[in-house]
Write a structure and sequence with these properties.
Blueprint: H1 2-39, E1 43-46, H2 53-69, E2 73-74, E3 83-112, E4 125-154, E5 159-167, H3 175-205, H4 213-224
Helix pairs in contact: 1-3, 2-3
């Protein structure tokens, strides 16, 4: 029983990291496949976004932003597209209210009295001081909050890229335009990462032994023996003494 339990525990400890590595490699492989598919895209059709009239406005912003980026050819003909940008978007309008109130008040009073009879005389005096100040401020500002969740889908129906962006707008840019710009910038960043991975993979396969030819070249140069220190088959024999 003890030997069987130890064997089972050893097998579990050996397979656990193996399974973790296999899961990680599968995830990385899937990401590489998606990035490789992204490099094959040439024409993109921005489909109608769910979300109503504001979504249609954001769609126009995305079309303009993608066209300015020059990353893909943005087409209005879905039959010519290699991939489709789909999703939902909305631009909510709300009122941001700020209110404050300040006040100052001072009160004071003073009084005296006197009486008078046939033999005496009295005096009566009253004094009162009062001051008050109150100020209130209320500011209401109409603002926009735009958000979009989009994905890039191939003709086969595979989702190869997706992102979600939100914005309250910038100092010189509206919320919808800022969301469209964020989507384009994220797509550009992932496209550049895909190109770097492709270059790294190509440079790795060009190294010695990468395709099996490098090792053979090293062997061939070593076996030629030309000019070698050991005087191989290609070396000239020493002169015989006279």
């Amino acid at each position: 029983m003890t030997v069987g339990l130890a064997a089972a525990l050893a097998f579990a400890l050996w397979t656990a990291p193996q399974e973790g590595r296999e899961g990680g490699s599968e995830t990385e492989q899937l990401e590489r496949e998606h990035l490789a598919a992204l490099l094959r895209i040439r024409r993109v059709y921005v489909d109608r976004l769910a979300g109503g009239e504001t979504a249609a406005h954001i769609r126009e912003m995305i079309v303009s932003s993608l066209h300015s980026a020059k990353l893909f050819v943005v087409t209005e003909n879905p039959d010519r597209a290699d991939a489709f940008l789909r999703g939902s978007a909305e631009d909510l309008v709300f009122t941001d209210t700020f209110a404050s109130s300040e006040g100052l008040s001072v009160r004071g009073s003073m009084g005296s009295s006197s009486t008078r009879t046939s033999d005496t005389q009295g005096r009566r005096t009253y004094a009162s001081v009062g001051a008050g100040e109150h100020e209130s401020v209320r500011i209401a500002e109409r603002r926009h909050e735009a958000s979009a969740a989009v994905r890039l889908v191939t003709r086969e129906g595979d989702v190869i890229w997706a992102t979600t962006q939100e914005s309250l707008g910038g100092k010189f840019r509206g919320a919808s335009a800022d969301v469209a710009d964020k989507i384009t910038r994220q797509l550009l960043a992932d496209y550049e990462r895909a190109k770097r991975l492709a270059r790294d993979g190509a440079s790795g396969s060009m190294g010695f032994g990468g395709d099996g030819r490098g090792g053979e070249a090293v062997k061939a140069s070593g076996s030629s023996g030309q000019g070698g220190p050991t005087g191989g088959a290609g070396s000239r024999p020493d002169k015989e003494p006279h």
